[in-house]
Amino acid sequence: MFRILIVDDTKSVHAFVKSLLAKSPGLNVTSVYNGLEAQEILKKEKFDLIFLDWEMPVMDGPTALAELKAKGLKTPIIMMTTKNAPDDIQRMLSLGVAEYLLKPFTIDILFEKISYVTGKTFECASP
Amino acid sequence: MNVQVPNMLQFFAKYIESELGIIYAEHNYFQLQNRLEEIAKLMGVSLEKLSEQAQSGIHGTLKQLLLDIATNNETSFFRDPRIFQAIENVILKSNPQNLRIWSAASSTGQEALSMAILIREYNLKNAGNIKFSILGSDISERVLERAKSATYTQLEVQRGLPMPLMIRYFSKDNEDRWTATAELSRMIEYKKMNLKDNFSFTEKFDLVLCRNVLIYQNVEGKKDILGRVTAAMGAGGYLILGAGESLLGLSDAFEQISENGSILYRKK
Q: Which of B155, B159, B167 has the CB atom closest to A89's CB atom?
């Protein structure tokens, strides 16, 4: 089973990404609402891939990213956000995000990003 | 389905076949109907009215829109990434000095730009100096205008393009449209062309991408197009077809090279 963690403060994003990914065999999706919750769950559980939002209450994406990287987290992280200024994107890539997914997106783009980062191709079921 | 619909669809299917050689099988008529409904909507008329209009002559906007829908202009950057890897392994690694490339059904330009990015990246990573020029051709004026603008919506630009390449080769405007940098665009020239018409070029191509064109043609149409494409290529030039296409029974002018799960055809 390939485990994905979604870190996003918007419930509808959890539901949307889960609905896109849930129909694909071999994927298991867990979601939390901010960077701090992500840090907590990552202390206890292992994931293969993380989708991380930028703007969240309690702890935002860039802070969580910096802290997780400082602790030596190797799990690839895909930043998933509406923030589309090339400078912001470049900064996150420099900080070590493996890919960057701009909202809104479609299922084919979501699966492409997973494939770039993991080298794995999952069956992309129709939404 | 209205009883009049099959006749109407048959009429449009025959027109598209005579103009482009593209055959709509009857079991795909529903796709044609969906697309005709889109055209009717665009032109602000009912499907019945559109059909009436067409019976009295197809020209102008209606003609252009019909050709556009028939040639199915959906595409993405690095569509079928394996073939681009194969092009890098076989062609770029042979260190050619100059490549003349033809994207024969260029649609909105993603294939031509992908080739330009592939070569730029190869040159950067390998301190290479492969020079290149790209011709993009398509039958549809509408898609060529878009290709020339090299401007894409955020969804379009993300499709097939990893983010590091997207921010290296595209710039964003205030309306979230992304435009290819001049260093890419200036390598590409676009031209309106129907591959079913006679054409010739002053210089031969080293690489021709003619993907998902033959698949819509009958055997005669395939041979006809292939003959002219082959004549436009230099000896040793490479031809790339779509993943579901092959030259089997159509041409013996090429040798087949398998690379990275893809096939390249090398002109003898």
A: B167
